[in-house]
Amino acid sequence: MPNWLRKTLVVLITVFTLGTVSPPPHLLADSNEDETNKAASDYIQSTPNTEVVVRDKIDPFSGTWDEVAAAIDSTEQLQGAFVAHTVYQAKEQTKQKFGEKIDQKRGEEFRSIILPKIEETISQLSNQFNEETLRNLQISDRPTRGRGEKIFHIVNRDSRKDVFRLHVRREHPPGQGYWFSFHYHDARDQFAEHHELGSIYWDRNTPPNWMS
Q: Phi and psi at residue 198, in whole multiples of 5°?
């Protein structure tokens, strides 16, 4: 299991059980065990004199972000949970967008090469938001079919404006076959720039349509 995914699972299990449920041993069995445990511990603490309370039992994977956010009182937990939840959505929604044929052939490359870069980007993005904004974010759940680029967008529910767009574009450089180019657009530059996350080679043959 990739280290980023192991870390995400440990963090989410620890956050949503307040540390009362230990993550399965196989999630902790790697050379970064101490670092991973510390990260999870950091997310379930606020200040020495403040008790962190998770009000409801929410599944951080199947729940929507507003449901997850509503169950968290700590700002530090909120930011960590947002990153973990969004990265999980990136993994699942990209798998959905790929469809069975593409995922079987290139899914693991996406998860090992591109997804850690998405995690880093989302972590940086979360740093710019205050607690109120974080709680009011919404992650779309309908990747586009066919040849559309959209994986998901993050929207501010108050303003109803996008703040982040995660896309994948098909590219066909002359004589090089087909590539999947992952990138994002950011509201901070009015979505003008393509911020590259990396590319995965497909084949010389035309890839299937998304979600086929």
A: 140, 165
